[in-house]
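ugh ok fine here u go
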Amino acid sequence: MERGRVGLKREESKLEWSKTKTIFIFIFAILNVFLYSVYINQHNQAQNVEVLGSLSIVESLKLDNITYEEFPEEEMSSSYVSAKVKHFTVEEVATLENQNTSIIDNVSLRSYMKDLPKLTKDADGHYMVEDFLKRYVWSGEQYKVWEWNEETRVLTLYQTVADEPIYYSPHGKLELHLNESDEVVRYDQTALEQFVSFNQKKNILTPFEAISSLATKGYLKQNSHIESVVLGYSTLVQFTETQVFAPTWHVRVLLDDGEVEHHFINAIEGKVIDFQMDEGRVYEEGSE
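structure:
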C-alpha cells in the first residue's frame, strides 16, 4: 500500500516538474522575443540618429538663428607637435639692435627700445608689425598677432608652427607695449625651439564638426554669427623643458551685441578647451 502511494507521488512530482519546465521554456521564449525586439528598435534608432544627426545640427542652428560661413568639408589630418623651451644666451641678446635687453630666468626677454620704432596701420586699422619683428625680435617672423588691448596698449602675438599659431602658450608669447603715439616702448618675449612633428598623422574634425561639437554642448548663443574656424595648436602637456601641442580649432563667434567669443576644440579628441582651467599644469621632466 505504502509503495503504491510513493509511486503515485513520484508520478505527480514528475508531472509538476514537466509543467514547470514547459512554463519556464515559454517564459524564456517570450523574453528572448522581447529582448530581440528591443535590440532591433535600438539599432534602428541608432541608424536614424546617424542619418539625421547632421541634419539635426543644421536645423538646430537655424532655429537659434546661428549663422556661419561656408567651410571646407573634405577630410583633414594633422599630428601632435613637441618643442623645447628656449633658453636665451647673452651672445644672442647682444646681436639685437637698438635695445637694452634683460634675460629673466633664462627663458624670458624684456627689451626697452632706444629709438622708439613707430608702428603703422593697414586699411582695416590693424597694426603692421612685420618689419619690426624682422628687425628687432629673435625669430620674430615666427610670431602672429593675436589681439590688441586698447586699455593697456599691449599688442599680443603668439609663436607659430608651420604658420599655425600656438594658442595661449606662455612659452611662445610676445607682447609689444606701445605709447599713445603708436611707438614700441618695450617688448616681453618667450620662445620655443626644436619643433618636432609626431610621424603618424591623425584624422581631425572638419570645421563644421567643430561647430557641431560646440552646438551640442551648448556653447553657441542664439543670434550669433560664426566668423571663422582656424586651425592652430594648444598645449596638451607641458613639462618644465618640453611642451607637447595638439591640433586645435579656434572658433571665433560674433554675438548679436557686437561682442566676440573665442572657443577652442581639440581637433583630434573633440574636447572643448578651457585655457583658464588648463593653466598651471606643469610636470617635472621625466615624471609620469
